[in-house]
Amino acid sequence: MSFYSLIVLIPLAALVSSAFTNGWGAFWRAATQVEALDAYELTIGCAVLGALINAVSGLGIAWVLARDAFWGKAVLNALIDLPFALPTVVAGVTFYTLYGPHSPVHLTLTGTWVGITVAVVFVTLPFSVRSVQPVIETMSFTAEAAAATLGASNTRIFRTITLPTLLPAIVTGAGLAFARAMGEYGSVVFISNNLPFKTQVASSYIYSLSSAGDNIGAAAAAVMMMVIALVALTGISVASRRLAKGL
Amino acid sequence: MQRSPLWLRYAVIAWVFTLVGVPLIFLFDKAGAPGWSAIWSALHNSATDHAIGLTFRVALVAVPLNTIVGIGAALWIVRHPSRLSQLVDRIIDVPLAISPIIIGLMLELAYAHTGWLGRPLAALGIKIIFSFPGIVMACLFVSLPMVSRQLIPLLREIGNNQELTASSLGAGPIRIFMTITLRSIMWATAYGVSLTLARVLGEYGAVLIVSGNITGVTQTLTLDIGNNFDNYNAYQGFVGASVLATTSVVILLILGLARHRERKRHEHLARAPR
After folding, report:
1. Residue B243 belongs to what domain range?
2. Residue of A20, A93, A203 best to disrupt the B interface, most CBs of B under 10 A
3. Is residue B242 part of a domain?
4. Which of A3, A93, B8, B43 to pair with B145, CA 20 to 30 A apart?
5. Residues B144-192: tens digit of each pLDDT
């Protein structure tokens, strides 16, 4: 416990207290600079988009991994976990070169929100798949089979039976992906070109303040981002519980 | 059991291959294309060499420390339920949800020579930020829950009947831990340790801030890669990145093995008569 305090709690307290060194007014001014607001907007936008893309594609991937058997499935399964094991900076430099100014596939995404979203989708891929996969594996199919014998179409079965069962797990996975994407740095910083007001994500903004010596301003923006993420995650978990109950 | 349509299977394979497989192959191709002698001389670059050594030393301290703390914390949370341990159980995943940049900033604010704890420590002549202990602390922070979150559900599930039996037969606590507890949590621990190792070797944002990124002194391999890339020395960066990517693939194989063994153990337990 004292280890936990030394490593996590004391630094957390130091961050919050530095953010409010000069009072509430100074905190609010620092945390709502135009440059900061632009960075939050871009970060949240790309995080939401990335989480949605992963929610849909993750469902498909989890479905295939859970229900099919085919040659090469083990490789596919291992590739899903790669973004967890691969250092973010390695992903960052690879994406920058693959989709950069001298792209070998003639696709230049540097300095665009599309590039940032691609990086975010990559690093958060495992969250959605691994949240949904175990639920599909243990699902019972009696309701689906019953609906089929009563003449329901595949689309209708999926929409009225399968999707509602899986929805809480899909939402959980999307929430985890969103949280991770909000704080992503290493994989995003190269491909984003890191242009203030344009393609600077929140983590880069905080880093640029801190390396310019403005630790109080950096702490203010950091506290703001953490509050936004916390509110969003609480909202997602409440929504997910409602969904589970309502269906 | 309803199978998925073929188009879905092919779409999934194409998507995962494009998103994950293509970048990985591309990276190895970039590093490998100029041939072995180029790779060999890139690996003997003095800054990269130092960075590999430093990363190795950081992992050597951070991973065992985190493993011991993780096993201890999991045992404490599951076996000695109290209000405090429940609170820790609830907040233990917090480090995973905080941006590495913010983690680095937190540590700097607390432990820099002007910080809360940094000032008294500096008076004692102990330097944490911009030196080795700071890098280790950043790695500990980001990987803190990796071992315990694997063990907590497992320890809850297996209970402590065997341990109580051993204790009533006169076995000491060390013998009980070594022969019973450790054996049943071995593969789950291996899984958590591999995740910790991956995180420690690959940490970038938090280490970037606390280390000061000084070439040849506090630069870890991830920082060296970033630096080479920023300084138009991309090939050197690719070789460093391939070293880390190779390590990640090895870690993935270990993870796969650990998961496989854990599932085997599970099936074995499920079949055993109660």
Report:
1. 41-271
2. A93
3. yes
4. A93
5. 999 998 899 889 888 888 888 888 898 888 888 888 888 888 888 998 9
- B69 contacts on A by Cβ (under 8 Å): 3
**Distance, CA of A240 to CA of A131 (rounded, Å):** 13
Looking at residue B1, its pLDDT comes to 47
How remote is the C-alpha of B178 from its chain's centroid? Answer: 24
Q: How far is B58 from chain A (nearest CA, A)?
A: 15
Q: How many CB atoms lie within 10 A of CB B218?
A: 21
CATH of the domain at B78: 1.10.3720.10
Where residue A180 falls (left for φ over 0; alpha for ψ -120 to 50; beta otherwise) is alpha
Residue ranges making up the domain that contains A83: 2-246
pLDDT grade for A50, boundaries at 50, 70 and 90: very high
CATH of the domain at A53: 1.10.3720.10
Write out residues 119-148 of B within 8 Å (CB-CB) of A: 137, 140-141, 144
Give the nearest partner residue to B241 out of A76, A83, A94, using CB atoms: A94
- Answer whether residue B24 is part of any domain: no
- B17 belongs to a structural domain: no
Q: Tokens 């909000």 belong to which residue?
A: A182
Cα–Cα distance measured from residue A196 to residue A217, given in angstroms and rounded to the nearest whole number:
15
pLDDT in tens, A55-86: 999 999 999 998 888 888 888 988 999 998 99
Structurally, chain B folds into a number of domains equal to: 1
Reduced 3-state DSSP string for A79-90: HHHHHHHCCHHH
B162 domain residue, yes or no: yes
